[in-house]
């Protein structure tokens, strides 16, 4: 079925990106995987290409687009080639909406121009060693100094994507204790300079997949954060997170869809090349049926993400909508990618085949940005259950 979500600007961007990825990313990707991150200087190249600035207003150096569809194109093209831009995946898709929506004019002037060029990379730190799904249970604290000039930040975060290389991290911290009635109040976002004394980056965590994505443990010991670096109002972070999580979940759903589409593409090519019992693997009826089933799943996912993209651009994607799209696509992707790997036989288990990367990378889409169980909780609540 013909897709109607993209216009000529999106398609021109796609063509440019496809060429760039084929020439500049695919050949060096195994090196990036071996070193566990994307070289920091590469982010400046992405900045020059316009990847980080699509939705940044022109006065701060961006392209001034209002559509999230350019991100969808980036996601589709990266997965089509079986690669990623590493830890920078959160920079423009997840962190930017917070800066745009809650940043003051002065903060935008300070942070957005280097954000666009890739000189100032960002990450977002919500999860703590003791709490992930239950964000209101966070224990990192930020105490306002007696003269009101700065916060003193103490605590630890974990699993922070892009956290090893980030220059600024949007840290969620308690500026007031949780109330007995309202556990969600009292959390504030501080945009912390990673060079501050007392700020420490722990290990680049070793993961099952997403090998080019740096994932960090962070700790804060009496880190002084100027009040000018608080994002939005004190105590309202939970409300801000609730507003922005649908976009994060849509972006994960897009990954799951794009990974599934890529898996079918890789399997489709492989089964025609590989000959066994004197005929191509594609010649077995099982192969045709498996790929037909997978293609049908991908088409259903595509219809859902396309509808969600339009709803998001129109400002209508609710928390329950985003949870639905994330739950459906990520759970289906698990089956699709697994079945496409199976068609590769033993080669599918070898890292040199991109299907193996997709298999490892897609697993986390059911966990981060809120687990499938949390998505079910949100959907059930929206059903009055
Ligand atoms: C590769 C990676 C990158 C990440 N990047 C970031 C990042 O950049 N920034 C950031 O802040 N965080 C990040 N995270 C953290 C991620 O969002 C959390 O891992 C996720 O929200 C789950 O939290 P948890 O790991 O503490 O699991 P837990 O909350 O401990 O969950 C354990 C189990 O309990 C289940 N569970 C939880 N609540 C319920 C419920 N109500 N009903 C039924 N079952 C439930 C869960 O579904 C899960 O199966 C990342 C994680 C990974 C793995």
Structure description:
The model has no long low-confidence stretch (mean pLDDT 97). The protein has three domains: 8-117, Butyryl-Coa Dehydrogenase, subunit A, domain 1 (Orthogonal Bundle); 122-235, Butyryl-CoA Dehydrogenase, subunit A, domain 2; 239-382, Butyryl-CoA Dehydrogenase, subunit A, domain 3 (Up-down Bundle), CATH 1.20.140.10. The strands form three sheets. Strands 1-4-5-8 form a four-stranded mixed beta sheet, with helices on one face. A four-stranded antiparallel beta sheet has the order 2-3-7-6, with no helix packed on it. Strands 9-10 form a two-stranded antiparallel ribbon. α1 runs parallel beside α4 (69-80), α4 (69-80) runs parallel beside α7 and α5 (89-102) packs antiparallel against α7 (237-273). Helices cover 48% and strands 15% of the residues. By secondary structure, the chain is an alpha+beta fold. It has helices at residues 8-25, 29-35, 40-49, 69-80, 89-102, 105-117, 237-273, 285-313, 319-342, 354-363, 372-382, and strands spanning 122-125, 141-144, 150-161, 168-174, 187-193, 199-204, 215-226, 230-231, 275-276, 279-280. The site of flavin-adenine dinucleotide (FAD) has 23 residues, from β1, β3 and α11.
Q: What descriptors fit this protein?
A:
Butyryl-Coa Dehydrogenase, subunit A, domain 1, Butyryl-CoA Dehydrogenase, subunit A, domain 2, Butyryl-CoA Dehydrogenase, subunit A, domain 3, 3 domains, 10 strands, binds flavin-adenine dinucleotide
